[in-house]
Each structure stands twice: as structure tokens, then as C-alpha cells.
Amino acid sequence: MKQIVTIPFFTNKVVQQYQYGWKNEAAWVED
């Protein structure tokens, strides 16, 4: 039961970090 709760939370954190890094990189490229 704990895994079911932990996996989406962990994935959400990774997705947020990935999106943040992608936005940062995109802004750097546009600059």
C-alpha cells in the first residue's frame, strides 16, 4: 500500500525537477 502512494509522489517530484530544468534550458537557449 505504501508503494502505491510513494511511487506517484516520487514521479511527481522527478517530473517537476525535469520541467524546471527544461524551462531553464529553454530560456538559456532563447537568450
Please give a structural write-up:
The protein has 31 residues and is mostly helical. 94% of the residues lie in helices and 0% in strands. The protein contains one helix and no strands. The protein is rod-shaped. The relative contact order is 0.11.
How are the SSEs placed, and which strands pair?
Blueprint: H1 2-30
Fraction of residues in H or I helices: over 70%
What is the strand content? under 5%
Q: What Rg do the Cα atoms give?
A: 14 Å
Largest sheet: none
Give the overall shape. rod-shaped
Instruction: Note the total helix count.
Output: 1
Structural class: mainly alpha
The CA-CA distance between the termini, in Å, is 46 Å
SSE pattern, N- to C-terminal: H
Arithmetic mean pLDDT: 76
List keywords for this structure.
single chain; 31 residues; 94% helix
Brief write-up:
By secondary structure, this protein is an all-alpha fold. It has one helix and no strands.
